[in-house]
Amino acid sequence: MSNQGKMDCGRRRLIVATAAVGGVGVAATAVPFVASMLPSERAKAAGAPVEADISKLEPGQMMVVEWRGKPVWIINRTPEMLATLSQMEDELADPPSAKSIQPEYCRNNTRSISDKKPEILVMVGICTHLGCSPSAKFKAGASEGMSASWKGGFLCPCHGSTFDFAGRVFKDKPAPTNLDIPPHKYLSDTRILIGEDTQGA
């Protein structure tokens, strides 16, 4: 083989080797780029159902879990709290929750899965007016800055909407509807799955 032929052969090998190394480099950089377009674990978790353990939730207490970036309240209502629900219906804007967001199985006076645990309320803690988070005002009367006739519930500090122990808004308040009830179901007596129910919502 002539010197020219040897040089051409050497060039071809160099070009092939360079192309191969370059191809590996492109593939190596493409993998992290493609991976960055996949949803993160945090993003997946934001829409996923959330389990809550209510085994230590005493009567009269409330706990908060996060679901889809929203605070979800779980309240273990006392018999006294539940008794107020029927006493205040004349003062409520939508007692049967006909205009509110809630699963069909919570369309009842307690807005809970009443055949399981009527005392447990699972509710999104965001006012339906402009998205503020209401404060718990569980004590009856004026001790927490409410009126003397207050029977307990929630107050939105932003614009004054008030809600009863089922998250139903009182008449003539800025909030247009009752607080939302997310889909949920019981996995056991002490565990609730929020974000999914028997219909798979």
Brief sketch in words of this structure:
This protein has helices spanning 3-37, 41-47, 79-87, and strands spanning 50-53, 62-67, 70-76, 120-124, 135-137, 153-155, 162-163, 184-188, 191-194.
Description of the molecule:
25% of the residues lie in helices and 19% in strands. It is of the alpha+beta class and 201 residues long. The chain folds into two domains: 3-38; 45-194, Rieske [2Fe-2S] iron-sulphur domain (Rieske Iron-sulfur Protein, 3-layer Sandwich), CATH 2.102.10.10. A hairpin with a 2-residue loop joins strand 8 and strand 9. The protein is globular, with a radius of gyration of 29 Å.
Under the CATH scheme, which architecture of the largest domain would be assigned? 3-layer Sandwich
CATH class designation of the largest domain: Mainly Beta
Mean pLDDT: 82
What helical percentage do the residues reach?
A: 25-40%
Stated plainly, the CATH topology of the largest domain is called Rieske Iron-sulfur Protein
Outline the biggest β-sheet: 3 strands, antiparallel
CATH-defined superfamily of the largest domain? Rieske [2Fe-2S] iron-sulphur domain
Structural class: alpha+beta
The helix/strand series, from N terminus to C terminus, equals HHEEEHEEEEEE
* Cα-to-Cα separation, first versus last residue: 75 Å
- Report the β-strand fraction as a percent range: 15-25%
Count of the separate structural domains: 2
